[in-house]
Amino acid sequence: MSDTTNNSGSDFNDERPRAYTPKKGRPTPKRDEVERARGVRRGPVAAPETAKEARARRKAMKESMSKEEYKAYKNKQREERQRRARETQAAMDRGDEKYLLPRDKGEERKFVRDWVDSKRFLNNLVLPVALALLVIMFVGQIYPTVAGTLSMVTMVIILGFLIEGIFIGRGANKRVREKFPHTTDTGFGMGFYAYSRATQLRNLRTPKPRVKVGDQV
């Protein structure tokens, strides 16, 4: 009786593969999922997908280097960032559409920049006048009478800025709609873009001016 039982149990066990393991009741997680949960993934060629993973990579890299090697690595990274920043700024100064901010892209905006850069405006002095206001505020604490007179002159100049700004916006819109009758750019947005360009000092404008003052646009 016992022999029969043992034989049947042996036969039952022999039907299973030698490497058989019982099911866990849930799927086995993938290796990259486990490593991502721990903050470490193999194959550093791929970009880190989480902040935790990026921190873990930086920590592992630092621990694998000597102090001098890590310092040289950081210097190289900084130089590379500076190089890319210079290249990006140079491309923006040239007016390369790929690197321009959304507000500067488009043929209409390029035309407005040329139109503003070809003229002289009172608004070109906005920055110097703003600095003068700071000086007036300082002088006013010592010489109230002189500061009062200078403040009146400054207010007149500011009023001139506002009046001219209206004409700049209207003039830019008129010229744009003459050259680009099917433009979808709004009048206020185009006018404000022209005004903001005019308030910047010429050598500080980005993109850099392509035309000289007095050129026909």
From TrEMBL:
<dbReference type="Pfam" id="PF11241">
    <property type="entry name" value="DUF3043"/>
</dbReference>
<feature type="region of interest" description="Disordered">
    <location>
        <begin position="1"/>
        <end position="91"/>
    </location>
</feature>
<feature type="transmembrane region" description="Helical">
    <location>
        <begin position="121"/>
        <end position="143"/>
    </location>
</feature>
<feature type="transmembrane region" description="Helical">
    <location>
        <begin position="149"/>
        <end position="169"/>
    </location>
</feature>
<feature type="compositionally biased region" description="Polar residues">
    <location>
        <begin position="1"/>
        <end position="11"/>
    </location>
</feature>
<keyword id="KW-1133">Transmembrane helix</keyword>
<protein>
    <submittedName>
        <fullName>Putative DUF3043 family protein</fullName>
    </submittedName>
</protein>
<feature type="compositionally biased region" description="Basic and acidic residues">
    <location>
        <begin position="29"/>
        <end position="38"/>
    </location>
</feature>
<keyword id="KW-0812">Transmembrane</keyword>
<feature type="compositionally biased region" description="Basic and acidic residues">
    <location>
        <begin position="61"/>
        <end position="91"/>
    </location>
</feature>
<dbReference type="InterPro" id="IPR021403">
    <property type="entry name" value="DUF3043"/>
</dbReference>
<keyword id="KW-0472">Membrane</keyword>
